Amino acid sequence: MGHDFTDVKQHILDTGRAIIVGKGFSAVGLNEILATADVPKGSFYHYFKSKESFGEALVESYVADYLAQVDALLKPDGPSAAERLLRYWNSWMTTGDDQSAQCNCLVVKLSAEVSDMSESMRLALLRGTNLIIDRLTDCILQGRADGSICGNFDAHRTAVALYELWLGAALLTKLRRERSAMDAALAATLGLLNLPRPVAG
């Protein structure tokens, strides 16, 4: 069939991710993933010793993809650090098939579920969220350096608070099926970073 080993492994991970975004981890059986991926069970066990080890690899795979997107949104490519941070938070407000929204959705979907179910998946997810917070901290410090963010607040603590705020807002948005929590998170973010509210119109 012309697939090399890494292609098959990535194909299984990509297929699993697409299904789990819709249903959650525990609701998805291996047979559904393998049937959708059109991969025999033996091939699955060649790469993953269990559903849990597949779950850990899945988390690591989408965290790596997501961090690449975070890096693209926060990279110093002209706009001030404050503008780049807002570019990142605005990616949370995108709905539908946008890749960033999907990744945020998967973190929200899996965090509560796997924390009680799989220690290895919990730790993989925790490592990923800590890396996101590190990047936000760096961008806040860059904002101090370029003058776009003022105030003597602790950059790391603020990054943690902001990430917690947006994760909670994403969860409430799923619950309410409308975006008032996201709008409130953006307003709170501007307040925490001492940034002006954008003028409407």
Keywords:
201 residues, mainly alpha, Arc Repressor Mutant, subunit A, Tetracycline Repressor, domain 2, 2 domains, 9 helices, 0% strand, elongated
Summarize the structure.
Helix content is 75%, strand content 0%. It has helices at residues 5-23, 30-37, 41-47, 51-74, 81-92, 99-115, 119-146, 155-176, 180-192.
The percent range for helix content is over 70%
Sequence stretches where pLDDT stays below 50 over 5 or more residues: none
How do the SSEs run, as a string of H and E? HHHHHHHHH
User: What best-fitting shape do the alpha-carbon axes yield?
Assistant: elongated
Protein structure class: mainly alpha
Mean pLDDT, as a whole number?
A: 87
* Biggest β-sheet strands, sense, barrel: none
CATH secondary-structure class of the largest domain:
Mainly Alpha
CATH topology of the largest domain: Tetracycline Repressor, domain 2
Instruction: Tell me the name of the CATH homologous superfamily of the largest domain.
Output: Tetracycline Repressor, domain 2
CATH level-two architecture of the largest domain: Orthogonal Bundle
Written description of the protein model:
This protein is mostly helical and 201 residues long. The protein folds into 2 domains: 1-47, Arc Repressor Mutant, subunit A, CATH 1.10.10.60; 59-192, Tetracycline Repressor, domain 2 (Orthogonal Bundle). It is 75% helix and 0% strand. The chain contains 9 helices and no strands. The chain has helices spanning 5-23, 30-37, 41-47, 51-74, 81-92, 99-115, 119-146, 155-176, 180-192. Helix 5 runs antiparallel to helix 7 and helix 7 packs across helix 8. The chain is elongated. It starts with a helix and ends in a 9-residue tail after the last helix. 26% of the residues are buried.
